[in-house]
Amino acid sequence: MPTYIYGIIAGSWLIWFCPFVLAQWNAKRDARPKVNGSVQLDPRARWGMLLQGISYAILWQNSFWTRSPQPWQVVLSLLFLALACLLSWTATPLLGRQWRLDAGLNPDHELVTSGPYRVVRHPIYASMLCLLVGVGLLVTPFALLLLATAVLVAGTEIRVRIEDKLLKSRFGDSFLDYRRTVPAYVPFVR
Description:
Oligomer: single chain
Strand content: under 5%
Helix content: 55-70%
Strand order of the largest sheet: 1-2
Structural class: mainly alpha
Order of helices and strands: HEHHEHH
Radius of gyration: 18 Å
Distance between the termini: 38 Å
């Protein structure tokens, strides 16, 4: 594989990952007083996280060291990777202290519907899908990319359903209206 491909992959992962580190760091230094009450968590969403992690591992299950992607694959990959980074950098800061790995609600949780949340309810999952496809176009055969995508979608569906249930329990009809008008994580797909 050409050296520049490694640079594209490493650079895109780093750029994609930075807003999550910054969100965690900002949450720790956030001086706002915490609202009394406990965080409502649903640990079942971790099964979705496990499947999402497996999907990324599937991408590397071939001899990617000898693979040399076609120019069209590189261009398409760069588009997906740029979209992944754009989504992670615009969606994560809007969540602020509400961002977490586990599916959960803070006592002062707010329903975010601005920015990329106007296009999809779960733009971070959309960014994960774009990241998977972008990397997959560079390092894995099409059949493995399809398998990895299917596993990622299965894990994401678990997480989306659990998170949507939590949001419905907190925000009721306003969330249901939002869910009716905005797709989960792929624009124009209900």
